[in-house]
Amino acid sequence: MADTFSQIYLQFVFGVKSRQSLIPKEHKEELHKYLTRLVENRKAKMLAVNCMPDHVHIFVGFKPVLSISDFVKEIKVESNEFINAQSWMKSRFAWQEGFGVFSYSHSHIHSVVSYIMNQEEHHRKKTFQEEYRSFLEKFQIPHKSEYLFEFFE
Are 126 and 137 spatial neighbours (Cβ–Cβ below 8 Å)? Predict the structure, then answer.
C-alpha cells in the first residue's frame, strides 16, 4: 500500500494582543513545554520554539494532512487558555489575530533553529516590527501596513 511522504518545514510567528510584553521570562520554559505538547498532539514535530515577551516563534516539521489555519488557531486558543489558567499576570492574556508562516527547505533547518534559539540576542539589534517586516520582504510576501500586527512605537 502506498503511503504519503512529505518534507514540510514551517516557521510560525504570532504576537501578544496589543503587542504587550506579557510573557514572563520566569515561565518561558513552562510555556515552551506546553507549546511543544500542543504541536506534538497534532502529529507535527517541534524543531524549535522561543517565546519573547511580546511574540513567539515556532518551527515545526509539518504534515500535509493538517490545515495550517486550524493548526495555528488551535495552538493559539489552547495556549491562551493555559496561560490564563496559570494566573501569571493580573490582566487577561490573549494572542493577536493573524500570524505569519514561512516555509523552509531541509537544508535550512539548522540556521532557522539557531535563529529562533537566539531571539534574545537578535532583538537587541532589531525590534519585532523590523524582524517581521524583514520576513515579509525576504519571502516576497505582498502586504499592506494596516493588515500587519498591531505595532506600537
Answer: no
Contact between 49 and 116 (Cβ < 8 Å): yes
46 in Cβ contact with 60 (< 8 Å): yes
d(C-alpha 153, C-alpha 134), whole Å: 17
The pTM (predicted TM-score) of the whole model is 0.86
| Residue 73 cell numbers, joined | 488557531
Q: How confident is the model at residue 1 (pLDDT cuts 50, 70, 90)?
A: low
| Contact present, 62 and 26 (Cβ < 8 Å) | no
Q: If you count DSSP H runs as helices and E runs as strands, how many of each does the chain have, helices first?
A: 5, 4
Phi, psi torsion values for 95, nearest 5 degrees: -85, 150
